[in-house]
Amino acid sequence: MRPFLTVVTLLFFVAACRDVSPSVAGNRAMLQPGFTGLDLSHHNGRIDWEAFEAAPVDFLYLKATEGTDWKDPRFQDHWREAKARGWLVGAYHFYRLCRAGEAQAGNFIQSVEVRAGGLPPAVDLEYAHNCEPRGSMSETLAELDVFLERVEAEYGQRPVIYTTPEFHRDWLSDGYADYPLWLRGLGEVMPRTRDGRAPDIWQYTMSGRVPGIESRVDMNRVPDRPPE
């Protein structure tokens, strides 16, 4: 299900744009409430892109990098195929809590060229498969801020924060309300953060099935109603 960009669409992450400069807000990619998307990495294996044309999805987020030096070996191929076939595409970075933010931003920027019309860059912040922070919470968050600021400056778009309710509660409850929120909440009930915030993107299953991909996939949707 391919979005038609000539149709008047709603600005993606309206809530996040409230405190963003007009130049940044004007460059945001466009998504409509109700759109469905996948996030993919090398773990999903090879994609039969001809068969994937029939997948009932509107946008893709592709894993590009992790930490300071790891690059997803399938990212460039995934990006090239997806863009050539007209998908709305964005890239994400898995953030390692024990690594410096500046170096992680450099790894992502080296892998993801600045491209007009792409979805905002995203950062994956979660406990699973992560490492223990080397410093205090304030020191670790200061490194995260360096990453976020460097990426925003590079791409002219405020990064999307992907996380879980637990990680958000422990690390992000203060100071990150202006960032678009992509929240995992598996099941039929849309999750909210402890302070009641609804996500801009909701990851509702990690076991979806789509044509062209043999493995199970993470599926996401943009809520039908703007977050309150």
From TrEMBL:
Top-rank taxon: Bacteria
Keyword terms, alphabetized: Glycosidase, Hydrolase
Any one Gene Ontology molecular-function term assigned to this protein's record: lysozyme activity
GO biological processes: carbohydrate catabolic process; cell wall macromolecule catabolic process; peptidoglycan catabolic process
InterPro entries xrefs: GH, Glyco_hydro_25, Glyco_hydro_fam25_subgr
Family in the record: Belongs to the glycosyl hydrolase 25 family.
Protein name as annotated: Lysozyme
Organism: Hyphomonas atlantica
